[in-house]
Fold:
Amino acid sequence: MSRRRRRYFFFFAAILAGLALGIIYGWVINPVVFRNTGMDTLRLDYKTDYVLMVAELYQSEGDLASALTRIAYLEASSPLAFVTTCIDYAEQHDYTREDIDLMWHLASDIDNALRTGN
Structure:
């Protein structure tokens, strides 16, 4: 083997060995352990975006039970208070009027359902 080929061989062998050792270390010896990463740990801006997506789905599907189930992933205790908090955030951070109206429509229907007991 010529000197140049030997140099390339050791170069690629070192790269492969480094990749193999890195994968073994990262997946077997010291894998990542996620802690406290539930949906409730999201920042308010992400929660507001999530509520907006739920409101968009609610507009197209018309299924309030599904919307409430989706909101319960983030806030199980009081969906109406949570949605209005997200609406306040959206109004303070210049979300479009259409987006805010979608969230208000969802909040209104949640309020009506809570009042009638449905």
